[in-house]
Amino acid sequence: MAPSFLPKNRFSQHLTPRLGAAIALIALSTLNYGFDNQGIATSQAMAAYKKQFGVYNPKTKTWAIPTYWTSLLNSLNFIGFAVGLYLGSLISARYGRRMSMFCMSIWAMMSATVLITSSTIEQVLAGRILNYAYVGMELSTCPLFQAEIVPAPIRGMAVGTYQASLLLGGIIINSVCRGTSEIQSNAAWRIPQGLFYIVPTIVASGVWFIPESPRWLLVKGRPEAALESLRLLRGARPDYDPEEDLENLKISLSEEQNQGSYRDLFRGSNRKRTFIAMGMNFFMQATGSPFTAAYGTLFVQSLNSLNPFDFSIMSSCINTVSSLVAIFITDKVGRRPILMIGSFLQIVWLFTMGGVGTIASPTAAQKQVIVAATALSSASLCFSWDPLNYIVTTELPALQLRDKTQRVASIVSIVTNFAWSFSVPYLLNAPYANLHSKVGFIFGALACLSLVFAYFCVPEMRGRSLEEINQLFQDGVSIRDFGKAPRVKAEEDEVQELPVVDKSGN
Predict the structure, then answer these.
(1) Cβ(76)–Cβ(417) under 8 Å?
(2) Which residues lie across from 56 on neighbouring strands?
(3) Is the per-residue pLDDT at 210 higher than 90?
(4) How far apart are CA 276 and CA 456, in angstroms?
(5) 468 to each of 77, 207, 310, 311, 491, how far by Cα in Å?
(6) What are phi and psi of 57, to 5 degrees?
(7) Whole-model pTM above 0.85?
């Protein structure tokens, strides 16, 4: 139970010291994703990095990484992502969430060694592929783990820390890169990448001190261990009965309309859940995330209007604040409104960026508008689809299908991210499409579709337990009527019994 001196709110009521420590450690692992995601992207703008891995142009007397290598470095890493996603999901489902986190941390330290010791661009590519296997294992485990251990009133905040931690990692490593960017030796990029060792070491050492997921323990036929996990996570509270909570989990598990096979993902009520999860992951990537995350620094550098390393720090800070605002209000405001607001803002900024890009010779002020629109489109994504994707995707699935739904949805994310990460350099640069900032029209059009998807296809699940959400889907409640369906009312918002819902949604 939270200390008595804290003000009474949903966080102090539900966030016990043990639960808070578990959420924090799981979120900490995502810092490494931010380190890799932003560290490699920012390093590519460094003079020392270009000299080590690029090609010399005698006409301009500069070093540059060829477009095809830029494309490969930021796309083929998703091969490792896909492999890691599958392996992590298997380990998580068979041996537990904690074991998966331990294995991925050990793997991360190995892949970091490959990256830091790189002397050729081929070795960098191999290191990125290996390191993204860690990222895939993390995605298959961490949001799922967080969703399974927290009560409904703070689940959005807890799962949202996955994205916030990723962005915080971006701030840290972009700041380090800014400080080392003027170094002329390979220490300029090797020092920031040395951070890749820190987080996995802490996570591998500390993961055994947090409780295992009670839902996973129950699926594995270990009700006594599940009960003990609930007691440790929820603490000693007079208004909370862990045995009653465990019974609700058992009821939900026994009433599920599936046996946990991949075929079941597309049967009955699960078909709807699977397609929503796939759509969430598609639009998170298709509306510009690969462009700003992997190529934002290089894009701004090509404009010659702002120090690209200053931009990377500024953008990371804005994105982190946007994500923190989203995860703190999502349990109050809801998932759908935030997604729709984010999509609308993306439409505005992306079409602004594309519109100004139609000017043949933009002025310094117009270039600043392009930079601002790029940063704001990224911030809008970090306010909405980036953090909310992990929340919604982990809330949707049936208990028996939670791991498999996460795999399938994440594969959609990987394929979409790969396609855009591979294509963006050719869309941006001459002698290929040479669209430059006019790519905003492409991503803006997809943002319009994401707004339609959020309005018609995403159910409102704030404040409901995972068992309650499962019951609503199985009762055939219309997606648009989720917010109107009968809700369990209790002082602490703990689910005491599953609601009886009219299948018509009335």
Answers:
(1) no
(2) 63
(3) yes
(4) 10
(5) 38, 29, 46, 44, 17
(6) -105, 110
(7) no
What is the rounded CA–CA span in Å between residue 271 and residue 256?
Answer: 14
**Dist. CA 477–CA 264, nearest whole Å:** 19
| Residue 19 token pair | 């639960």
Tokens 């795999």 belong to which residue? 407
The tens digit of pLDDT for each residue in 178-200 reads 999 999 999 999 999 999 999 99
Enter the tokens of residue 500: 């009886």
Q: Is residue 240 part of a domain?
A: no
66, part of any domain:
yes
Helix and strand numbers, DSSP H then E, in the chain: 23, 2
CATH code of the domain in which 292 resides: 1.20.1250.20
- Mean pLDDT lowest among 126-130, 145-149, 178-182: 145-149
Coil, helix or strand at residue 62: strand
**CB 383 within 8 Å of CB 323:** yes
User: What is the C-alpha to C-alpha distance for residues 506 and 503, in angstroms, rounded to an integer?
Assistant: 8
pLDDT in tens, 426-479: 998 888 888 989 999 999 999 999 999 999 999 999 888 888 888 889 888 888
Helix or strand holding residue 64 (H, E) = strand 62-64
Note whether 259 and 478 are within 8 A (CB). no
Please report whether residue 451 resides in a domain. yes
Residue 312 to residue 179: CA distance in whole angstroms: 12
The one-letter code for the residue type at 83 is V
Buried b (16+ CB within 10 A) or exposed e, 344-371: bbbbebbbbbbbbbeeeebeeebbebbb
In a domain, 237, yes or no: no
Written as six digits, the tokens of 71 are 């494309």
Q: How far apart are CA 300 and CA 45, in angstroms?
A: 10
Which residues contact residue 53 at a Cβ distance below 8 angstroms, ignoring those fewer than 6 apart?
Answer: 65, 69, 118, 120, 121, 124
How many domains are contained in the chain?
1
Rounded distance between C-alpha atoms, residue 286 and residue 373, angstroms = 17
CA–CA distance, 357 with 149 (Å, rounded to integer):
47
The 10s digit of each residue's pLDDT in 387-408 is 999 899 988 988 778 878 888 9
Question: Is 90 exceeded by the pLDDT of residue 293?
Answer: no
Domain that holds residue 30: 10-210+266-463
